[in-house]
Amino acid sequence: MASPSTSSTPVPPSNTTATHFLTSLLNKSLRIHLVDGRMFIGQLKCTDRERNVVLATTYEYRRPTARALERAAAAAQSGQGTVKLDMERRFVGLVVVPGESTARLRDTEPRYQHAGWWQ
User: Fold this and answer.
1) Half-sphere exposure (CA, 13 Å, Cβ side) for 116?
2) DSSP bridge partners of 96
3) Which of 23, 72, 89, 109 is least enclosed, having the fewest CB within 10 Å?
4) Over the stretch 52-85, which tens digit does the pLDDT of each residue have?
5) Is residue 31 a contact partner of residue 41, using CB atoms and an 8 Å limit?
């Protein structure tokens, strides 16, 4: 008779626990990182089985362009002191983030950041 596996892989919560957890995040501010490097911060309005997420009052953040990076590198080499590049931000309002594009999803408030199964 085979013995049960003692894997250290995190076990996802039951459907009831997951439902309560997602319900507690409704209308809370979430940060979603996409596989293409973009990031969205907005209020969670709903999600579905395919992990698509609807955010309201959302801002999109993008990494600096290659041209901006080149200018910053030139400024740093010419001795103009500290060079700081910020992510570009724009208001996008209501947005649907496809589940297959999501790399990481985090609550912007620290209360759930210990729950490693959803980060």
Assistant:
1) 4
2) 54
3) 23
4) 999 999 999 998 888 888 888 888 888 777 777 7
5) yes
How many Cβ atoms sit within 10 Å of the Cβ of residue 44?
Answer: 19
Vertex 91: Cα angle to 86 and 95 (nearest 5): 120
Alpha-carbon distance 87 to 60, whole Å? 9
How many contiguous H segments (helices) and E segments (strands) does the chain have? 2, 5
pLDDT in tens, 91-101: 999 999 999 99
* DSSP state letters, 67-87: HHHHHHHHHHHTT-S----PP
What is the topology classification, in CATH, of domain 18-105? Answer: SH3 type barrels. (2.30.30)
- Report in angstroms the alpha-carbon separations of 11 from 15, 23, 116: 12, 20, 10
The residue count for the chain: 119
Which residue ranges make up each domain of the chain? 18-105
Q: Which residues of 10-20 are buried (b: 16+ CB within 10 A; e: fewer)?
A: eeeeeeeeeee
